[in-house]
Amino acid sequence: MMLRKRDEEVLDFESRRQQRRKKRIRQRRRRIFLFLCSVLTVLLLFFLVNKVKNKVEEHRLLKARNESFVGAPPFDVDLIEPNEYSRPGTLLEKIKGIVVHYTANPGSTAKNNRDYFDGLKESHETKVSSHFVVGIDGEIVQCVPSTEIAYASNSRNDDTLSIECCHVDETGEFTDATYLSLVRLTGWLCYRFNLTEDDVIRHYDVTGKICPKYYVENPKQWEKFKQDVKAQIKEVEKEVKESEK
């Protein structure tokens, strides 16, 4: 009887010891899990905070840089997120020209087109973007930095800047406000990158695509536009010289 009782006590002791051991293991695993969760949370917060800070700083620097250029027309810097469908982040080695486009989407705004480019990172619908978009009311939005390529001009993506222009109807003709902003923007970019009006081309001149439609169908108006750009380059040059006095 005494032996049986002692055996039972031993078994009971072993059972309690095993339970305590399992409990310690569970507690240890729980502490490790909580620690890993805390580390991951901190890393995630650090990543998100830095991403926001970098975006804010990038926007601030670009805006400050653009505002510092004499002769530049007013424009909003609203860069699309880096992604393989509209902003691959590939650097432009040298800017040799400016390509003018039309949106082929009558009535859309500069913001509409900018948001469409940005949305491609999720829709994966196609690969397209533009450095600048000029709206119907003359507003200008920069979507891609002038140091990076945009998906707009096919074989000339790697050495040109692109400007998309909004229009009110199927003719593709620009409003007076759009035209004026386009001339001012193109003239300033030409001066900034040491280009002439002869370095300004249509998308049509690259691929044969009817873009910008109005200026493909009305070549004399395109030549007039280039002469207006030439005059604007001289105007920017004059403003720069005045600012240096």
From TrEMBL:
It catalyses: Hydrolyzes the link between N-acetylmuramoyl residues and L-amino acid residues in certain cell-wall glycopeptides. SUPFAM superfamilies: N-acetylmuramoyl-L-alanine amidase-like (SSF55846). Its EC number is 3.5.1.28. Residues 85-220 form the N-acetylmuramoyl-L-alanine amidase domain. SMART domains: Ami_2. One of its GO terms (molecular function) is N-acetylmuramoyl-L-alanine amidase activity. PANTHER family: N-ACETYLMURAMOYL-L-ALANINE AMIDASE AMID. This is N-acetylmuramoyl-L-alanine amidase. It comes from Blautia hansenii DSM 20583. The lineage of its organism: Bacteria, Bacillati, Bacillota, Clostridia, Lachnospirales.
